[in-house]
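Discussion board: Methods & Data

I've been asked by a reviewer to show the raw model output for two of the constructs in my manuscript, not just the figures. I'm not sure how much to include, so I'm pasting the format here to get opinions. Each protein appears as its amino acid sequence followed by a line of discrete structure tokens. Is this the kind of thing reviewers expect to see in a supplement, or should I convert it first? Here is construct A:
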Amino acid sequence: MLTVALLLLFGLLFLAAEVVFIPGTTVVGFAGFVLLAVGVWLGYRDLGTPAGHYTLAGAGALAGVVLYLGLRPKNLARAALHAVSAGPMHDARRPDVPAGTVGRTLSALRPAGTVLFGEERREAVTRGEFVDAGRAVRVLGIEQNRIVVEGA
């Protein structure tokens, strides 16, 4: 009887931990479900059919209460992000280094490396050619969020 009670208790605790404290992991919730199922099965096997029915009904009711309390909108709102960033954002879809801009390589481009445009260090790539460090490069364009340059 103690084994059945402990299995049910730990199953409910794991289920509550999954729903309330660490939602989305599913491992802890699955372990809790397995513990509950084994506890109910042992209840039927060791305690008999009537006690097994009570075990099943009690475990189901308590699991339902845990799920109901854990999945209420008030509790789910604790896990949601409510803060809004009012600071400036860099939109990677807009080219901030227009085509034709001239910069100087800080590292060798083989074919990728670091280029200085004014005061900004940016990663850039060539179309395959190698450019030594300290050389001037010109921006050809931006392709798939990469700055493509050539030796100037």
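Construct B, same format:
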Amino acid sequence: MISIEKDGLKYYQFERLNNLGVRHGFFTRLGGVSPAPFDSLNMAITVGDSNENVLENLRRMFNALDLDLASRYDGWQVHGATVICTDVPRDIRTRTIRTDGIVTDNPDVTLVMRFGDCVPVLLYDPVKKVSAVYHAGWPGTVLQIGQQVVRNMSEVYGCDPADLIAGIGPSIGPDHFVVRDDVRNRFLASFPEDAEKLIFEQDGLIHIDLWKANRITLENAGVTKIDTAEICTVCHLNEWFSHRGDHGKTGRFGVLINFG
């Protein structure tokens, strides 16, 4: 990944997407107006921050990529595997739709999601000109939401999975994602042939590699061009909001994609 600093904001991009002219970014917590513990580029009002702060932070994020905030489409993330397709920006006067994946073929739509340890994934088809973003917490990873996103891109827009470019962004890394037996059992059931690649024990604790799990899901869906940031949000609290690292009281960082 490459890091970029602009107007006090810092964000990361995947070179492969950048080389195709796809405007995208995994924005750190730096450069916003929110007070502690949401300091400072918090993108979510659900954590306790004010509407005014979040709106200003959104404006700053969009301005960094020369995008119009009115082009945004975001959803209410619920740790599921629902995926929606849209050809227009979201009407901010209406209630947000519950979804953890969004797909569009409209270059005038900017897809946006918010994260705080869960895995952010971007997809882009340079042939059909279709983009997607999805939110893969551990429940979404178990449900293999990536398979559903690729299926939507293929069935609705005619995308060939082999053409897709995927970027798995910063999130909680395997050294810090410690779980109990019930979560391990769900991963064993969901990834029976790959469990040994994803689950390991260290000092008597169970760890799971969400980066690998989401990569395997994409590979099983036919995606071959996959880049992984391998940046752990817990390890780098100076740059990223982390639900675990900040003990539940923190903000959410923004991720967006626009291919126009």
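Answer (T.O., handling editor elsewhere):
This is acceptable in a supplement if you add a one-line summary per construct. For B, something like: The radius of gyration is 17 Å.
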